[in-house]
Amino acid sequence: MSVETAPVTESDLRDDDLEDLRLSAKDYHELYHIMCLQREFETRLYTLFKQGRLIGAAYAGAGHEAIAAGSGYAMAPQDVLVPLHRTIGTHFLRGHTPRIMMCQYMGRANSPTGGKDGNMHCGDIEKNIIGMTSHLGANIPTAAGIALGLKLQKKDGVALSFIGEGGTSIGDFHEGLNFAAVRKLPMVLIIENNGFAYSTPTELEYACENLVDRAEGYGMEGVLVDGTDVRAVYRATKDAFARARAGAGPTLIEAKTYRLLGHSQQDPAKYVPQSYKDAAKQNDPLPKCERDFVKSGYCTQDEMDVIKSNCVKEIDDAVAFAESSPMPEPAEALTGVYAV
User: Fold this and answer.
1) pLDDT tens figures, 237-274
2) Residue of higher predicted confidence among 12 and 243
3) Do 131 and 174 form a contact (C-beta atoms < 8 A)?
4) Torsional sign, CA 297, 298, 301, 302
5) Residues with Cβ < 8 Å from 132, sequence gap 6 or more?
6) Could you tell me which residues are beta bridge partners of residue 118?
7) I want to staple 201 with a disulfide (CB 3.0 to 4.6 A). Which of 3, 49, 98, 303 is the partner?
8) Element of type H or E holding 253
9) Which pLDDT score, from 0 to 100, does residue 1 have?
10) For residues 136-170, b (16+ Cβ closer than 10 Å) or e, as one string?
């Protein structure tokens, strides 16, 4: 079965769009740092899972790092994040440290859920992070509700959420976007289109050329972007946030990328054709970021090598911290479960 996966390339964008982002060298260093941190964190998760040191499942966003870093970096403190399972970099940008997220994956008492839930199912109201729902489409109406609340309270915040291309076929996608468009809500939804909904290729998922084409039908702004280019994702998200703050309503962004691994740690992805794997390797967002940043003079190769090395140390520290943290007491299982 053939799989059409052609991320938008830099040639489809105006050169000045990516070269004049008004970011400092420190900003570019942080963008690369978050991408590396996500890759190293999730690589370590898979190792820990195989060693039986995790509680529950593990999912990796390898190939999605530019989407997480670029979109999360465009957010302001007052904005609200409704993340997805391949965007842990946004958690890091909002203040969930590798230590605390490793505690979450290991079910420790000092994790955001106190050991009651695992992996990415966590949030923090003080950090403006609303925990994701496993039924991924349900995050869209949640984000729309948050955006409605922000608008009614006349706050300057914008709600940001994500969905895979497979999740765009369910009712929550339509209902959430239609409501957001009609009410002109301050909301941004990013479709992370990696070509597969678990094992189903895009040609069996939808008939339109690009999913972002649906935005016109909802009466909202739609943007197609190369999801392997952190600069392009940042620019598109930053523009979408500006439109939302100006009262112009929501934006639908389709970020095309590749999934470098299977759906989760137990998926060998044997259904993926070799042509896709070759293209995914060529479009890996981390080496692409390295090449682009060095070529543009944002970072030197030595600086990027130091960032990569420091990320390994950060994750070493996170694992050690989590494994030395206490497990929850059995009696705690009955607390904080029901609202009264």
Assistant:
1) 999 999 999 999 999 999 999 999 998 888 899 999 99
2) 243
3) no
4) positive
5) 82, 83, 84, 85, 120, 121, 123, 139
6) none
7) 3
8) strand 251-256
9) 38
10) bbbbbbbbbbbbbebbeeeeebbbbbbbbbbbbee
DSSP, residue by residue, 265-298 = TT---TTS-HHHHHHHHHT-HHHHHHHHHHHHTS
What distance in Å separates the CA atoms of residue 313 and residue 268, rounded to the nearest whole number? 28
Query: What domains can be seen in the chain, in order of their start residue?
Result: 10-14+23-324 (3.40.50.970)
Q: Map tokens 């955006």 to a residue.
A: 147
Q: Collect all residues with Cβ–Cβ distance below 8 Å to 180 and sequence separation of at least 6.
A: 143, 144, 147, 187, 189, 220, 249, 250
Return the ∠ at Cα 34 (arms to 88 and 62), rounded to 5°.
55
> CA triplet 240, 244, 248: central angle to 5 degrees?
105
Given a contact cutoff of 8 angstroms between Cβ atoms, the answer to whether 250 and 244 are in contact is yes
- pLDDT band of residue 334 (cuts 50, 70, 90) is confident
Nearby residues of 72 by Cβ (< 8 Å), 6 or more positions away: 34, 81, 87, 89, 90, 92, 93, 94, 160
Q: In Å, how far are 29, 66, 200 from 35, measured between CA atoms?
A: 10, 6, 27
Sheet containing 221-226: order of strands: 80-82, 159-164, 187-193, 251-256, 221-226
CA 327 to CA 6: how far, in whole Å?
45
Q: Is-contact 215 188, C-beta < 8 A?
A: no
Euclidean distance between the first and the last CA atom of the chain, given in angstroms as a whole number: 52
Q: Which residues pair with 225 in a beta bridge?
A: 255
